[in-house]
Structures are given as C-alpha cells and as structure tokens.
Amino acid sequence: MAIPITIDTLLNENVVEWARIEFKEGWNPETTLKTIAAFANDIDNWGGGYIVLGAEEKDGELVKPIRGLDSSEIDGIQKELLRYCKFLRPAYVPQSQPVKYEGKHLLLIWCPGGYERPYLCPKRPLDKKSDKVYYIRKLSSTIEATDADRKELLGLMNNIPFDDRVNLSAELKDLKYPLIQNYLEEVNSDLLKNDDRNTLEKLAKNLRIAYGPSEYFKPLNVGLLFFSDDPERFFPYSRIELVDIPDPTGQGMTERFFRGPLDQQLKGALTYIRNNVIAEKIFKVDGQAEAVRVFNYSYEAIEEFVSNAVYHKSYQIHEPVTIRIEKEKIEITSIPGPDRSISDADIRNYTMRSRRYRNRRIGDFLKELHLVEGRNTGIPRALRKIRENGSPLPLLVTDEDRSFFSVILPIHEQFRNSGEEPKKQKKRRSREEIRHLIIIALRQKPQSMTELYASLGYRGNPSGSFVSCVKELIDEGAVTYTEAEKHSPMNLLILK
Q1: Mind giving me the DSSP string for 409-450?
Q2: Is residue 344 assigned to a domain?
Q3: Any idea what the CATH number is for the domain that residue 478 is in?
Q4: Which residues, other chains included, contact 181 with Cβ-Cβ below 8 Å and sequence gap of 6+?
Q5: What's the whole-model pTM score?
Q6: pLDDT band at 461 (very low <50, low <70, confident <90, very high)
Q7: Which residues pair with residue 52 across a beta bridge?
Q8: 184 is in which domain, residue-wise?
Q9: 421 lies in some domain
Q10: CA separation for the pair 21, 139 (Å, rounded)
Q11: How many angstroms separate the CA atoms of 207 and 226, rounded?
Q12: For 56-75, what is each residue's pLDDT tens digit?
C-alpha cells in the first residue's frame, strides 16, 4: 500500500514537522516498535509520524551521504515489521514502502494516529512475559509515558478529532475520483503510479479518507471536505464569505461566496483578493536610484491569516469563514476562537503557540499543498511580511468565551484617503514617513547609519530626529544591528 507523500517531499520540503520524522540507520525491532506505538498514540494530535529506515540524523540534520539499506533485506524487514506489530495492543499495523533517495534504498514507514488509541507496547518485544507500557513522542524523542501522560492518553479514548471521524451520512461515491487525482498530481504522490489499477476504494484507503469494513466502508469528514463536490451537503456553511464594502454607507457593496473543496475555495478567495484588492504605489525618493514600492496590504500576510482561518475553524459549528473588506481595513473572522491554553497576553504579543490542533488532518492536507505553514510559524511569517511592507501591525481580537477569532489588518498609511493623488514628497518629512522610508530602504540592502541617512536624500551627519526614529524601530524589534558594537562606523542595520 503506497504512502501519499514522496520521500523527496518528506525530507526536502518541510511539509511534515521534523519532530514527526524518526531516522533509524538500520532495522532494530525493539526501538522501531516503540516509535510506531508512540506515533500511533499521537498524544499531541499531530497526525502521527514517519520512520525512515536506512538513514540517520544528528543534531537535527540528516546525515549525508546516506548509507541506505541492502535491497535484499528490505522484504525480510517488512515481514518482521508485520510480525512485531502484532505485539501491540490493540492491534495496529502502519503502512510501509520501499523507496529510493539519492540512489540509496530506504524503507519508509507511515504511522498515522490510530483510531483505537492508546496502544500498549511490550518493553522487550522478544520476551513473551514482558510488561506492556505506553510510549509517546516528546519533541523528537520516543519516551515511556509518565503517570500524567497515561491519564491523558486514556482520556483520548474515543476522542477522535472531528475531521478524522467517519461520516455515517455519506457514501464512498460522495468522494470524487477526479478531485483525488488532481490532489495527488499537485503533491506529486507515488499513488499516481499504476493509476490504472487504483480504484476509488483503494485511493481512499491509501489516503486514509475512508474507514470501516468492506461492507460498511464510509468516508471520513476530512475526505468529504477536500474531495466532495459540495462539502456543504454534510457541513452547512463550510465556505468562505467575502464582503467588499468600498463605502461606509454600504453603497456599492458586493458579496462573494467561495464554495467547494476546502483547497479550491481557499485558492479562489485568495485569487480574488490578489487580483481585486491588492494595490501598489511607487514613489521616487530624492537622492535614491531605486523607487519605493508599497502595497495597501501585504498579500502574504492575508494569505497566511485566511489559510489559518480555514485550518482552525470548527466544522461542527455551522458558520462560515468571513472576510470583510472595508475602505481602510480587512477583517478575517473564524469560529470559534483560539484554544484556552493560549492566554490573552499571548494574543496581544503575537506569541500564539498551540500544542493541540483542532483539525490535524485538515492541516496535513493544507501543508502538503503549501497553503499553511507548520511548526507555529504562520503568524511570525505574516508579521515579518507586514513589517517589510511598512504596514501597521494587525489587531487580534477574541472574547472571554473564545467564541470567535478576528484578525484586523489596517491599510498602509500611504493608501489612506486613496481617492487623492499622491502628493509630491515634501522636503520636511514626518517621523512616521522617516520610519517608513527607513524600513523600505533596508529592504533593499543592509546599510550603516550614515549610508541609510544618505539613501533617504539627506546630507551631512544623521540628524537627531533621524537617529531617534532608528532607535524606536530597534526598540520595537523591527530593526537590529549586525554587530554587537553599535557605534562602529562599519556596523550595518538590517531588518529583523
């Protein structure tokens, strides 16, 4: 049974978090079985993980050249793997596939989170009388569960995330073969090989988007959200609603609904925003060869926040993701709000890091399509793009009950009162204009204080007002020095 991700994608494209990949130089039944059990228990709802036999890791990096496995031993390893997995309670069998990477033979083992977790694993698989314990993953290590971990694991019994549950009201035919095929082509999956022998049922099994005995084989919710023509048949209002309000009175307001498979509605909404909302202005700065280019909004930030809204909304709550475009701001809202483990201070400081994911399978599919970031890097990336454009930082809003979450993106200062033509650059600039131009200039290249002052069209030594603006940006974390000695004339300023 093929695995729906290539070895090249797994190792090179950061689609799967590094902590979810375990490298083993050779076949060791005991350690491998414990890692399989830990991934199957999936205590953090990350979606399990992958084991790569024939390669090793050191200090978080893949060791090269890869040694690989002897091709003649791979078949025997797979047979032993099946035999040892029978020692797990309840029964659990991962999917394995021989692969080649950089000319070396490897065995890739996919261990998705199990439906019947938690799983017990013998401490010593070769000893029939061995005690059985629970194993879990902590960061990139497999460890024996503590008493607290065991209680948490037992609490996960029958607590399967909504997107990973069987949908009893749907039939296998509700999953559309062409949609699955298009997805596999986009992620360059090995499942496309021997496609003439791939039935809908086989593909659904391989992608784990359906589950059950042959006489009652049903789609999972995640399969219906990505591979049915109309997910709203099963999950009302699972769509994106965009309203464009160019005038506060509502005159000229337009509404657009983006429906269909999650990835298609997400791409449709983002394409509309890129083509109809994003605008650019170009300014000539005195004494500088390069023109200054700014956008009304950072498209990359919008892309991140809209994708996260689709990823993290609850599909058990029948409310859409909404995007409200007003004259000087964009507001993106999803329901419900962030997990209560994320404090109000975390939200204010943009340090939202979730240990648990509401929709782990939805996240896996969106990551493979490169529509969302992994490892809690989405918001930092969005903030970086906003700062690079010189835009105001967003406002993150929720309520005490965490019933909703909104991201409000203010328009760039240069686009306020956008009906007016841009005025010619005044000789005397405001502090906000100086701060903005500093950021734009540093986007071109790192510069010393003197070079930066000259690039903005000034002459002589940097003025006190200019130095004060630079210091403010450093204190805010937008700009930093490349060297510890700040007063060195060779020291360069860079965007953080």
Answers
A1: EEPPGGGTTTTSPPPPPPSSPPHHHHHHHHHHHHHH--B-HH
A2: yes
A3: 1.10.10.10
A4: 192, 195
A5: 0.63
A6: confident
A7: 23, 108
A8: 172-233
A9: no
A10: 10
A11: 12
A12: 988 778 888 999 999 999 99
